[in-house]
Design goal:
By secondary structure, this protein is α/β, with parallel strands linked by helices. The protein has 9 helices and 10 strands. The structure holds NADP nicotinamide-adenine-dinucleotide phosphate (NAP).
């Protein structure tokens, strides 16, 4: 069996949670799943347990709390209860629990720090193995200090604007997570027009026989530089293509030039 060394995280945001997809993922050497308490109409955890409970030990499972049916909240008590609930619904402790998009409700540094402490405490008492923060738009968080997270997850890839990219890097430098992960390398869809307008293969070193999707996915590990990327697909062929893309190398010079272009465009 091949392994992706945990660098490819199968994200379940848009997924139907089909058992055969999860079986194929395990067979392809994928070792990480990422979900959230609100995915699949707030049923992701229980559906994972019901349809693939026996497969779950083959994966490290991350989930997210803080997005409740009524909206986002960073109330430490609610977050603690949500982690307990995730444990119960999954039938095991999650390996990693993120605070989900705290930018929606982090009115102050103190609010966010208290929320992070609640997750750190949950990890300490064994409700989860580690904790982190997942943020779609970190720009409002860059002046906040929080306890050091195990993982910070941010948007990654060729569709991320320079302001969000730089804010994510600033946050990573300030919070010093043990790992930085990326997410949503296609910006949620490969059907958007933007993917027809340029060839992402220029970002790969040595002109390998890669598809555009493979090149876009592989490039996302460099924008910003991340240890793992959460990507979504319900298509086993697409998933295989993504795992194969990990063998390609990103051309750091092209990434550097691309960033200069983004930067220049920011001030026009
Ligand atoms: N704030 C947050 O915490 C947050 C926000 C967004 C995302 N995330 C995480 O990131 C994960 C991924 O995000 P996402 O699903 O929104 O966006 P994404 O990974 O950028 O895009 C997913 C789309 O790309 C398509 N795709 C994937 N591989 C492909 C391939 N090889 N060829 C052609 N199309 C391909 C999939 O279609 P097919 O199914 O047809 O392959 C799917 O519709 C989420 O599941 C979640 O874990 C977290």
């Amino acid at each position: 069996m091949r392994t992706t060394d945990g660098s490819l995280v199968l994200g379940l945001h848009r997924s139907g949670h089909a058992r055969d997809l999860l079986e194929s993922a395990a067979d392809l050497g994928i070792t990480r799943l990422d979900t959230a308490s609100n995915y699949l109409s707030h049923r992701s955890h229980e559906v994972l347990k019901t349809t693939a409970g026996d497969l779950l030990p083959r994966f490290s499972v991350s989930t997210k709390v803080g997005f409740f049916p009524e909206g986002h909240s960073l109330d430490p008590v609610r977050l603690h209860v949500a982690v307990e609930q995730a444990f119960k619904e999954l039938g095991r402790e999650p390996d990693l629990v993120f605070i989900h998009n705290p930018e929606h409700s982090a009115a102050s540094a103190e609010t966010l720090a208290d929320a992070c402490s609640a997750l750190a405490d949950a990890a300490r008492v064994g409700l989860c193995r580690s904790w982190g923060v997942s943020t779609w738009d970190p720009r409002s968080l860059t002046d906040f200090d929080v306890p050091r997270p195990d993982v910070l997850m941010v948007r990654a890839g060729l569709l991320v604007g320079i302001d969000v990219l730089e804010a994510a890097e600033a946050l990573a430098a300030r919070w010093r997570p043990s790992q930085l992960w990326g997410m949503s390398p296609f910006g949620g869809s490969t059907a958007q027009n933007v993917w027809q307008r340029f060839d992402p293969r220029v970002f790969l070193r040595g002109s390998p026989p890669a598809s555009g999707s493979q090149a876009a996915f592989r490039s996302s590990y460099a924008l910003p530089r991340v240890a793992a990327v959460a990507v979504g697909t319900d298509n086993v062929d697409h998933l295989r293509e993504l795992t194969e893309a990990l063998a390609y190398e990103v051309d750091d010079n092209v990434v550097w030039e691309y960033r200069q272009l983004l930067k220049a465009r920011q001030f026009t």
